[in-house]
C-alpha cells in the first residue's frame, strides 16, 4: 500500500507546467487505487478517496473523519487545505488529463443500478454557465457513457435482476418492484436530462438504440439460462426481468422513439423465427416456435409492457416498418403470432386493438390490412394448406357484420376520409373473398347492408367512391353465383385491386392531393326498363378535373328475345335473296358502290324550326339523329331566324332522349352532339337561350340528368364566351364591354399628339399579376427638357397594345348566367331538392358560378356579382354541406372570387365601409381555415390551403392599394379600423 501517512499535497510548481501537474494527479490516483486494493477496512478506503477528493473539492474533512476510526480519523483531519487557485489547477489537471478516466474505472466497479441512481439525478440539477459547472456535467455524462454504453451496463442490470431473490411465494418483493421501476425511469430519462451540447451518444436516437439492443439480447439470453437451470427460481427471476424490460420499452415508446425500438426488434425476431424452422422444413408451425427456449421471452415481451398506449404505438410502427421492408405475408403473420398470441388470447383490450382500432379507426397499407385480418380475424396463416379447410370462427362473422353495417351508412360515406373508406372497403372485400355462399346464408343482415352500401356509393359523384361500390358488388356476386359475376364498371377486372391507388405503403403516409376521377368515358346501356332511365351524367370539375359519372341501368328483359327474332328475320331474308340471284348474268358479279346510299336518304336541314320539329319525333330515331348531327353547324351559321327560334330549339334539345334513340355504342356521341348544339345556342344567342335554360333548371318537367346537362352547357358556354380573341387596332370602336370593344383594363390611346404605344413595365409581378403596370413615352411640355412617363395599372402579358388586345364577351352576359340560377336553389318543390337528394346538381351549380367569376377576373362586373355569390356560399346549408363534393365546389368558387376581385376595388370598399365585401372576404378566410384543420376529405383540406394562400396574396395587394390611396388622397381620411380583412405583415 502507498504511504498512508503522507497527507500533504505536492505543490503545482513541482511539475513541469500543466503536464507535470497531470502526472502528479495520476500518481495520486494510483496511490488511492493501491490503497483501495490493499485495504482491510472501510476506513482505509475512505482515507484513500479523501486524499484525492481534497485536491479537487472543498471537502468538509471533519465530517468525513467522523465516519471512520483511528488512525484514519487523524490522517483525514490533518490533510492539507488548499487555496482556491491551487485547487482549480488540480481540478483542470485531473479532468483534462488521464487521471479522471483512471479514477472512473475504479469507481465504476459498483453495480450499474447504483451508478444510475447516483449520476442521473445530478444531470437534472441547475446548470450554471460557469466553467467548473460545465466541466462537472461533461464528466458526469462521460461517466454515464462509460458505464451504460461502453461497459454494456444495461446488460449487467438485466443479469442483476435475473439473479434477484424471491420474497414470498410467487410475488416479487414490493420494494424490489419500486426499485426496478425507479431504475427504468432513470435509464429512459438520460437523453431528456443531457445538456444541449452533450455527446451524440446521449441523444435519444443513439442512446436508445444501444439500450434496446442490450436489453433485448440480454433478456433473451437470460430467459434461456433460467429455462435450462432447473434449480433456479424461474418464476420470480422472470418476473423481475420482465418487469424491467416492460418498463424500459414502455418509456422508450412514450418518449417518441418507437421507430428505434422496432428497428432493433424486427431483425432479432426474424433471426429467432429462422432458428425455429428445422433445415428439412420449409413451412413454420406453432409447435416449432413453442419448442424453442428463447420463445418464452418473445411470448411475454409485449404483455409485460402493460402500458396499452405504448403497445399500440409499437404495433402500429411494427406493421408499417414490415410493409416498408416488403415482408412476405407468411413472415409478417408469424411475427405477429409470436409477439401477440399469448396476450391476444388473454386480454380483451388486445383483441379490441386489432379488431376495432386497427380495422375501423386506423389506416394502414393494404399489405398490413391483410396481415391484421389473417391474424386477428381469419386466425390462420396465409397460403397455408389448412387455410381453405378451416371453419370460420364466430369472430370472423362478427367482424364482417360490424364492417358492413358501418360501411353501408350514408353518414360514413359523407363524414369519413376517402382513405378510411378505401381501407374499410378493402377489409370487407378481403373478408368476402374467404366466404362461401353457404356461410353467407348464415350471416345476419350482411346481404342487405352490402346492397345498401353499394347503392349509396353508386350515387356519389366521386369516381373513387363508385369504384369501391363496383369492387364490393363484383366480389359479392362471385360469392352468390361464381359463374355470373356482376361488372358495374367497364374498368372492372376479375381480380379486384383493393389498393384503390391510395393504400400503398408510400401513399398511405402522405396527404393525398388527387383522389378525383380521371377523364375516362363510361359506357351507357341503351335500353331502359318500362321506358325510364335515371342517368346521372356528372362532370366533376373541382377544381379543374372533368369526368363523367353514369349510374348503371337495368337491362331490358326483352332484349334477348328481340335479338333472336331479328336473327331469324335476317336468315329468311338471305334465303329469298339467294333464290333470286341470276347466276348467268355477268353484270350481277360486278361490285356496286353503296357508300353514298345513306346520304341520299338523309334529310337536309336548312331551318331551325325543322330541327326542333324533328327532335320532337321519338318514333323517328334516324330523323332525330340526323337533326342532332346538323344542329350545331346550323346554329353556328347564325341565321336570321335564330333569335326567334332559339327558345324552342333549346327546349327540344333538353327534352330529347339520346340514349333511347341512338344505336348501341353511340349513346355518348349523340349526347356530345346535343351538348355542343346547346353550347352553340348559348354562345350565339345568350339572353334568349339563358332565359329558357334557367327556368328549366328548377322545373318539374326535367329530371336530374337534364338539370346536370343544363349546368354543364352553361359552364362550357361561359368559358367559350370568355376565350381570348385578338382584335386589331383599326377595329376599335364602341363603348365599354360591348362585343367589339377592347378590354376595360387596356389603357386608352387618348393623349397628347406624338405619344408612344403602351408597354408593360418590366418589373416582377405577383402570383396573380395584380401589380403589372404599363407605360408609354409622352412628348415634352413647353419648357421641359426631359421626357416623362405616364403609367396606368392593368393586367395582362407584355405586348404592344397599339397593335392588338384581348376581348372577353362574358361580362356582358354574366348577370344572366348567374343571378337567375342563384334564386331558388334552397327550395324544395316540384321534385327539386338540391340541398339534400340532388346535392350533385348543387355542387355543379356552385362550380359553374365559380367558373363565371373566374372568367371575369379583374373586370368591374365581377365586383358587382361577387356579393351575391358570397351570400349564397356563406349559407350554412351550402358551405357546411355533408357531402364533400359540395364543399369542394364551394372552395373552388371562393378561390375564384379571390382571384376575380381587383385589389383596388377591395381597398375602396374598405375605405368606403362596404361591409358586404369585407365581411364576405373575412368569412372566406375563417371558413377555409376551419376546413383545412378539420375536414375529413383530403381534397377539401388541400383546396382550403390553396384558398388561404390566395386570400393572403389578395390581402397583401389590398394593403399596397390602401397605402397608395393614403399617399395620393391625404385629404380624405382612411378608416381607423381595417381589421375586417386580415392583411399579412400588417404590423411591420
From TrEMBL:
Residues 513-538, 738-758 are annotated as: Disordered. Residues 515-538 have a biased composition (Basic and acidic residues). InterPro entries: ARM-type_fold, TEL2_C_sf, TEL2_Regulation, TELO2_ARM, Telomere_length_regulation_dom. Belongs to the TEL2 family. Residues 607-718 form the Telomere length regulation protein conserved domain. One of its GO terms (cellular component) is cytoplasm. This is Telomere length regulation protein conserved domain-containing protein. Residues 259-498 form the TELO2 ARM repeat domain. It comes from Urochloa decumbens. Its main location: cytoplasm. Keywords: Cytoplasm. It is found in: Cytoplasm.
